[in-house]
Specification:
Length: 255
Amino acid sequence: MTPSQPRPDGGGLDPQGGPMRSDRPVAEKGIPDATIARLPVYLRTLNVIADEGVTTISSGELADAAGVNSAQLRKDLSYLGTYGTRGVGYDVEYLRFQIGREIGSAQEWPVIIVGLGNLGTALANYSGFGTRGFRIVALLDPNPALIGREVVGVPIADLARLEDVVARTSPRIAVLAVPAAAAQDVTDRLVACGVRSILNFAPTALAVPAEVNLRKVDLGQELQILAYHEQQTGDSVVEPSIKINKSTIEKATAS
Ligand SMILES: NC(=O)c1ccc[n+]([C@@H]2O[C@H](COP(=O)([O-])OP(=O)(O)OC[C@H]3O[C@@H](n4cnc5c(N)ncnc54)[C@H](O)[C@@H]3O)[C@@H](O)[C@H]2O)c1
């Protein structure tokens, strides 16, 4: 069975033993974002497993290899209408096909990066985009010292030519790695050219029309969350800056 030949029964059995199948795309099924974020992880794991010649895998084995718990994995895959086969597990090839179809990794997504400073250049150089189906089609920056330089074989174009570049390369997704003060203007121009998906790294809130999908990445916020959880363990390495003495606590608890 090849990935382009779906099994007539949809590749698995439901918990009652009946055939399960769903052809609706992700958006219509209301799959949670957290599940959508894990699907590429499952796909990468399945790719490695398939390369090793494995044809079927249990949910427990796949969950271990993907670094999630098996209940989570079964729930995630159930959104695709796939439950595996009792006592056998999942058909690796079919599951690859099914996840690839759902997350669109069978198709290549053209991506544009705006802002080729430290972050934009690092993102452009990240080889993981290519293996996940994202192809960088254009790079834009206003800095004359950068214009014309190549990153991953793509020349940096002048930001002033954004509209031409978008018309020529038809990016489906734009990544913003520009200063916060420039982000809204760049966003407005991208939206006016028809770009409907934007990943914003600039530390500012952006206004976009309802039909535009905007996501923000904030590493500082992620670190703050980790720091918060570290603090909750009670092993804080930093002395609190406000010293509270015993009488203050007694007054507070007396009221
Ligand atoms: N989200 C995160 O976790 C995260 C992490 C690091 C940096 N950032 C943000 O990403 C952005 C880029 O950071 P960096 O370290 O690469 O900065 P940088 O200064 O190295 O790069 C910024 C780039 O934007 C270009 N630029 C300047 N003015 C512009 C304009 N008006 N329009 C478009 N481009 C313009 C510059 O020429 C430069 O190449 C900043 O807003 C920064 O705060 C976010």
